[in-house]
Amino acid sequence: MTRNPLRLAPALFLVLAAPAAAERLSGPPSGDNQKATVSQWIGPVEVDITYNSPKVIAPDGTDRRGKIWGGLVPYGMSKDSFGSCGDECPWRAGANENTVFRVSHDVKVEGQPLLAGSYGLFMIAGPEEFTVIFSKNSTSWGHYFYTSKEDALRVKVKPRKAPYTHWLTYDFVERKPEEATVVLRWDELEIPIRVQVPDVNEIYLGQIRNQLRNATGFEWQSWEQAAQFCIGKKVNLPEALKWAEHAATPGFTGQENFSTLSTLSQAQAANGQAEVAKATMQKALEHPTATVTDLHMYARQLQAQKKTDEAVAVYLLNAKRHPDVWPVNVGLARAYAAQGKTKEALAAAKKALAQAPDDGNRNNLKNLIASLEAGKPIN
Q1: Would the pTM count as exceeding 0.90?
Q2: Are the C-beta atoms of residues 99 and 121 closer than 8 Å to each other?
Q3: What's the mean pLDDT in 228-257?
């Protein structure tokens, strides 16, 4: 009996369609190269890398230790007959789909600008130098359709020896407030990439300005916190003064109290208004909201700044306004010690010891008393 070849067509169609259909199913990653993500914040900027992580041991059990670099990962561009990259195919810096590098804000990578966004991360390996490529195409599989026309940035970095790492791993190291270094580690090598936020304080300020325009801006604490940020970082000082004035002005969103007045004094001083700042601080010290702790901590601050006479004056003011309470006697001990009045300092310290609220403070006072009795200076 002669077979009709047309009757085979449906079966043949199903066989050809099966691989494409299988790719749509969720299952384990190709080669068991598990997906991973590492994230790091550099101040307000989020940086993350999503990748598939191969291991040194091949799927068939072959030990590739010492054969990764210049072997499995070739030096220079490779050639691939599939796709369109031809003989200009970089390494995908991982396995399977593109390794994706994402930044939430504009940054600098190895000193070169990179706009916020998601990028396919590729590398051209070399024994002495790696070229790191950030491609605008972050959604492809591997390097097969890579083209240099889609490059957003290329930078060169130096690989360095590292402890053995079995699974290809990305990690953030050498972290600082305005930069971090991400490294790719595999086998006995690591490839460092430095990511910098050019002006991290400006990003914070942008966020602060927006927050002061929403519900947060109805609280005086937010305006004071904004001013304190600038004072602490020594940035945006004219606007910080306006924010401090807003916080300390009685009204719907401002309130005059020890905290807002002392912040206003700091903002005035930071803007070169020394005499005005001094008067504002005096007003803060005399304000009815100034607590025993407020005065004590301000005196400690002055003492840390080596402004001994001013610190002593505040300690004595605190003793006058809040006699014989914790931590006034601690302050008096420090004030008398600064004046060379050891006997009076010891008497105040022993009173404070009896008033101490917890073991930590009691132990600190015992050490202070021991130093006074030994004729040693106290901090």
Answers
A1: no
A2: yes
A3: 97
